[in-house]
Amino acid sequence: MTDLLTQLMMERDWLMADGATGTTLFNMGLTSGDAPELWNIEKPDNIRALYKGAVDAGSDIFLTNSFGGNASRLKLHDAQDRVRELNRAAAELGREVADASGRKVVVAGSIGPTGDIMEPMGSLTFDSAVEMFHEQAEGLKEGGADVLWVETISAPEEYKAAARAAELADMPWCGTMSFDTAGRTMMGITSADLAKMVETLSKPPLAFGANCGVGAADLLRTVLGFAAQGSERPIIAKGNAGIPKYVDGHIHYDGTPELMADYAVLARDCGARIIGGCCGTTPEHLRAMREALETRPRSDSRPTLEQIASTLGGFSSASDGTGDDAGPSRERRSRRRRS
Predict the structure, then answer these.
(1) 181 near 213, Cβ under 8 Å?
(2) Which of 210, 328, 330, 335 is the most exposed place for a label (fewest CB within 10 A)?
């Protein structure tokens, strides 16, 4: 039986994912240091509103409130014995919203990093990571998630552990890494490395790509890196809404809806088929992205680095992590940058 995400990708040239979970929940009153996953039980109406905000803005895919729902992260809140319960609740609420939408909407079970460092640099073993991810995956599966969505991963072994967990749970999955260190992940992986690695897995992801990182320009440079590898596997782009700034005691992302609309169209033209936002991306941003994707014509050629920089602002580093010249630095931001 074909999964819903694959069905939609067969029907459509592009799909729109959701925006920022954390930003939205903080706007609802979540306090820094609290576990968002506990709201799946304690404040279910808030989580329904989180999901519905993305769906109403036009998202075809939304991620469940389960990013930190593994035993290692939940242990910080004395909730390590509630992994299955909290993940199941996250997906059940998502299923409820998706089924009431009147259209095909994918409930993607979010799985973030364990928060521990893999061996040999740290103490986390591959088998332990698989066990944690599998426990989370089974809860999301029980709750009705259509697909598992592994995100913000830095270490290749942790990505592989999540892939193995999806295999054990017999669930389709997608997986993104965060390229936030001069074009590489914190553990040194490049876009080319990830594009090659996904093809070596016994259960490859339905789609792969990048999320979070620095700004939208950097993320699109990474997407171009994926596309350059010639992979036919769908690419995911989920960039932050601009650059984070500390304003009045809070982190604020400076990307406007207009800038994110430009980003969405550029992401599509760079080769991404699943396009969404990460930190700072609100339903207002998503609505602008959806309209731009539906109304602006596709370019006949890939955007150049100069075009990306002139539209979204310069790159945070001079290299994409592979040693090639990456174009303008942030000091050369265009006047078109919308703050």
Answers:
(1) no
(2) 335
Q: How many percent of the chain have pLDDT more than 70?
A: 93
Rounded to whole angstroms, how far apart are CA atoms 83 and 85? Answer: 6
The structure tokens listed for 164 are: 């193995």
Provide the whole-model pTM.
0.93
Contact 329, 279 (CB under 8 A): no
- Are 330 and 196 in contact, with CB atoms under 8 Å apart? no
C-alpha span between 203 and 133 (Å, rounded): 15
Backbone angles phi, psi at 96, to 5 degrees: -60, -45
What's 263's DSSP letter?
Answer: H
pLDDT in tens, 173-209: 999 999 999 999 999 999 999 999 999 999 999 999 9
H helices present in the chain, as ranges: 4-11, 21-27, 39-42, 44-56, 71-74, 83-99, 126-143, 156-169, 191-198, 216-228, 257-270, 283-295, 305-312
pLDDT 10s digits, 229-282:
998 999 999 999 987 776 766 666 889 999 999 999 999 999 999 999 999 999
CB atoms within 10 A of CB 249: 5
Secondary structure (DSSP) of 226-256: HHHTT--S-EEEEE-SS-EEEETTEEEE---
The 10s digit of each residue's pLDDT in 125-140 is 999 999 999 999 999 9
Q: 235, 272 in Cβ contact below 8 A? A: yes
Question: Do 18 and 276 touch, CB atoms closer than 8 A?
Answer: yes
Tokens of 122: 């740290």
Is residue 333 a contact partner of residue 310, using CB atoms and an 8 Å limit? no
Which one-letter DSSP state was computed for residue 43? -
174: which strand partners?
149
Provide the 3-class DSSP secondary structure of residue 225: helix
Rounded CA-CA distance 206/78 in Å is: 34
Give the Cα separation of 298 and 312 in Å (integer).
18
